[in-house]
Design brief:
The chain is of the alpha+beta class. The chain is built from six helices and 15 strands. It has helices spanning 57-60, 74-82, 132-137, 147-156, 203-217, 232-241, and strands spanning 11-15, 20-24, 38-40, 43-52, 94-99, 105-109, 118-122, 125-129, 170-171, 177-181, 184-188, 224-227, 258-266, 269-270, 285-290.
Length: 294
């Protein structure tokens, strides 16, 4: 109930002998599918939920037996095939909770840390969630503020990623994995990515790389939008994602799931200046959103 606002398309819970998994779903990929905890078809003991999106789920489906059209469905199937190395094959912002065939719990946060994942322990019970207030609602922590987090906020005016505001709560670092089994709670640090050779990249190769990256992230089952600032980077993404971008060749055009652009203006962070390329030129309807403190 504490996370109902995160998933207006329904919720699902699976109670395992040791762990329980639950999800509140916002249907972006395969929205017609109801909320559920996905399992590996050839090994139903492997179950998973996630918050976020697996951008390369279509490519990962090739050669896998996947039950369901949602991006979540590839996670248990991929784990059944590759074990813990499966997480390295996922692309996109995703916080994942998975139960393996031995009953161990795996928590994993995406390498860039776009989606948060928190956990806390009390009286031998570990609780995890994508928002800290769910841990408070579960009774695992009492909601008392962390003095370290409060001191950091008062000094820098922001919250630190590794200092949850609630005392007694731990946060997974970007790319980190937490494994909970009979041996206890084990934190697995993120794997260090090997640096690619810094060979010169020509304009054509860079353009094609950007096209592929944007196309993989454009929604195909629902309509989408882009955040447009006055910078050239967001204008470039908008151009590649839209249906009317004059810099987009038809044979490489991304799916037309994006048809609107939004620019946000808040005190101290006003992005409402003239964009590098006007949204109508890129084929998008453009709206300015102005937010003011209450």
């Amino acid at each position: 109930a504490a996370l109902a606002h995160r998933g207006p398309d329904g919720s699902a819970v699976v109670v395992d002998p040791v762990f329980s998994l639950g999800i509140a779903r916002l249907g972006i990929v395969a929205p017609s599918e109801g909320p559920r905890v996905y399992v590996a078809p050839d090994n139903p003991r492997i179950q998973a939920v996630h918050n976020g999106e697996i951008d390369n789920h279509q490519a990962l489906r090739r050669g896998l037996q996947v039950a369901g059209g949602a991006d979540s469905a590839v996670i248990p199937a991929l784990f059944a095939r590759h074990g813990e190395r499966a997480f390295e094959r996922l692309r996109g912002p995703a916080a994942i909770a998975l139960i393996d065939e031995d009953g161990a719990l795996h928590l994993r946060r995406d390498p860039l840390g776009k989606k948060p994942l928190f956990y806390a322990e009390r009286d031998g019970v570990l609780t995890f969630a994508s928002e800290q207030k769910a841990l408070v609602a579960a009774g695992t922590v009492n909601g008392r503020p962390s003095t370290a987090a409060a001191a950091f906020f008062l000094r820098y005016g922001m919250l630190a990623d590794d200092l949850p505001w609630c005392a007694g709560v731990a946060s997974l670092a970007p790319g980190e994995r937490v494994v909970v089994d009979d041996g206890g709670v084990r934190r697995v640090p993120p794997a260090r990515a090997a640096l690619a050779d810094r060979a010169p990249v020509d304009d054509h190769a860079l353009t094609e790389l950007l096209r592929a990256a944007v196309a993989m992230r454009v929604p195909t089952d629902v309509r989408g939008a882009v955040a447009l600032s006055s910078g050239i980077d967001s204008a470039l993404v908008a151009s590649l994602a839209g249906s009317g971008g004059r810099h987009t060749r038809r044979e490489h055009r991304a799916p037309t799931g994006v048809d609107a652009a939004y620019t946000l203006a808040i005190p101290g962070a006003d992005e409402s200046g003239p964009p590098a390329t006007p949204a109508p030129t890129l084929g998008h309807a453009h709206r300015h959103l102005h937010a003011t403190p209450p």
